[in-house]
Amino acid sequence: MNPEALYNISYGLYIITSKKENAFNGQVANSVMQISNEPASILVSINKKNLTNEFIKSSRRLAISVLGQDFPLSLIRRFGFNSGREIDKFEGVNYKLTDGGLPYIAESTLAYFEAAVVNEIDAWTHDLFLCKLTEAEVIKEGLPMTYAYYQQIKRGSTPQHSVSIEPNLKIKESKMDRYVCSVCGYVYDPEVGDPENQIPAGTSFKDLPDDWVCPVCGAGKDKFEKEN
Fold first, then answer.
1. Could you tell me the pTM of the whole model?
2. Number of neighbours of residue 144 by Cβ within 10 angstroms
3. Edge-to-edge strand list for the sheet holding 23-29
4. I need a surface site. Which of 61, 71, 159, 166 has the fewest CB within 10 A?
5. What is the mean pLDDT, run by run of 10 residues, along the chain of 228 residues?
C-alpha cells in the first residue's frame, strides 16, 4: 500500500468545542465531514486522549467553528498545542455561545454549527461522533482554511494527537535561509515574514527580535534550526 495516496484527501481546519458541567474546552481538528442533508448530519473524529473527547462524551453535544484563511496562528496554537487540563483555552478569546450554550470562536470564523451526538464509533486511536445538526449560522463571507493552505501558506504544523496526514506540498524555494522550529515544525520563511506579529517580508531570521517566538507553539529563537 502506498500511503502517499492519502495525501490526495482534502481537509479543512476547525475548532471543535464542548462543555462538561460549567467548563468549556476545545481543540483544533481537521476531520469533519457532512454525512447527509436530511437529516442534516456530520461526522467528527476526535482523539481518545484529548480532553475535548471527554467533554463530548459527557454532554453528548459539540460545536464546530469553521476557520477562515485569516484565522490567526496564535489561536491555532492556543487550541491545538495546549491542553485544556493545564490552561483555560477560552481566557481572553473572543467567543460566543450557541443557543444550546456551547462556545464557538467569533474571530475570523466563517460559520459555526451546533450538533447532538446520536452515535459513537470506536476507530482505534479516535472516536467518531455521528451528530445531528441542531444549529447552523454563517458569520461572514470568506474562504475556508484548508489543511493544505495551513501547511503551505501559514507554514503551520500538526498538533499532537491529530490525524497527522500531511499533504505532499511543494513550497516555492526561498533565496534566503529558512529556519524550522524543532518543537512543532513551523517554518520561518524570510520572504514571507510573520505578518501576524508585524514582521515584514524580507526580514532574515538573524534580524528577528530576540524576544520573537514561534507563532505556532511559542518556542524561542534558540529552538530553530536552519533548514537543510
1. 0.85
2. 16
3. 23-29, 14-20, 61-67, 109-123, 126-138, 40-47, 32-37
4. 166
5. 82 97 97 96 98 98 97 94 96 97 97 98 98 98 92 72 50 74 93 93 97 95 96
